[in-house]
Structures are given as C-alpha cells and as structure tokens.
Amino acid sequence: MSQNGKLMPNLDQQSTKLLNLTVLQRIDPFVEEILITAAHVTFYEFNIELSQWSRKDVEGSLFVVKRNTQPRFQFIVMNRRNTDNLVENLLGDFEFEIQVPYLLYRNGAQEVNGIWFYNSRECEEVANLFSRILNAYAKVPPRSKVPSTKSEFEELEAVPTMAVMDGPLEPSSAAVSGVADVPDDPAFINFFSVRYYSLNHLYYS
C-alpha cells in the first residue's frame, strides 16, 4: 500500500505478461510469445444434428500465442470452470466471423464455436489479429518454412500492449465473480444461427 493509502498494483504490465508466459509455457513449452490477451471470454458450441447452440464448459482468459514450431499460431483459453484448457490452431482450415462482442469460428475439425467477449474492444482486437495472421499465412507457400526474421509474422509481435491483462492468469475469486454473466438471450442465439448457416453455405458452395 502506498503512503497516500491507495492500493498499488502488485505487477506492472510487462511483469504480468512474463508471468503469464511462464504459466503458458508449462502447458506448452513451444510457446514463445503472447501476442494479445482477452481477459474474459465464454464459449458456445453448435450442435449440427440438433441445429442449436449450447454453452460449453469453457470460460476464462484467452491468449493468442506465437510458437517456435508448427502450428505457428494458436489461441489458448485458461479455463476457470475445470482443468481442461481450450487450445485452437489458427492456421489451416480455421475461419471466423465477428459481430462485436461475439466471434464465431470453425476449426480444422469442422467444429463451430462461438466466443462471447466481456470486453468488446478486446473482441475487435483479437479479430483483427486473427485476420493479420491468416492473411500473412496465405502469402507463404504451404510447405515452406516460416521465416524467423523480418517477415510478415515478425510484424505480429507489435500488437497493442493495451490488450495485456492487468493481472496474472489466476485472478482472485472476487475478480471473477465481478464479471457480468454471459447473455443467453434470443438475439445471441439468432445471430450465431444465421452466421453458422452463412459460414456453412460459403464453405460447401
């Protein structure tokens, strides 16, 4: 606590980022950098047979990371609901659509998931980074090695630091309970239903 009685943060942004990187590297030793962070997200999955959305048991902080081996880029969600963290590859068959604060994506396994972002600004920043990664990857021949310096990928390191979390990966229970609940409203379900069929039509056409 400072002399004026106000609580001072325990960690600055750089220290927090390094701490989070250390935690992520325990999960995946090939992670070399955190490109961007979304402090709180919740996931939904689409059941193709039932044509309906349901909430997944995945909620927590999302990290877009760069790895020093293939797959080069992934996003990882440090799950607060159980011990199973979510990991998705951003290269290959990954595709997405966005309508803030929601992001819909299809992964390489053809699973369709929806992400709700507590912070709309983070939703936009993550979607922008996804676009940059996918566009940069499209310029590289499929079997060529990813250049390690002065490349399209190198530019991805210069992401805004504003997206870095203000706290470590393991926030207090009070901080988690203070997050607003996810909106399970008809507008949310309708948006993703329409977007799923749009994405599905584009994929199979």
From TrEMBL:
Biological-process GO terms, alphabetical: deadenylation-dependent decapping of nuclear-transcribed mRNA; deadenylation-independent decapping of nuclear-transcribed mRNA; mRNA processing
InterPro entries per record: Dcp1, PH-like_dom_sf
Coiled coil: none
A GO molecular-function annotation: mRNA binding
A GO CC term attached to the entry: P-body
Organism of derivation: Linum tenue
Lineage of source species: Eukaryota, Viridiplantae, Streptophyta, Embryophyta, Tracheophyta
Keywords: Cytoplasm, mRNA processing
SUPFAM superfamilies xrefs: PH domain-like (SSF50729)
Main location: cytoplasm
Gene3D superfamilies: Pleckstrin-homology domain (PH domain)/Phosphotyrosine-binding domain (PTB)
Family statement drawn from the similarity comment of this UniProt entry: Belongs to the DCP1 family.
Record bears the keyword Cytoplasm: yes
Name recorded for this polypeptide: mRNA-decapping enzyme-like protein
UniProt keyword Cytoplasm, yes or no: yes
Pfam families: DCP1
Localization of this protein: Cytoplasm
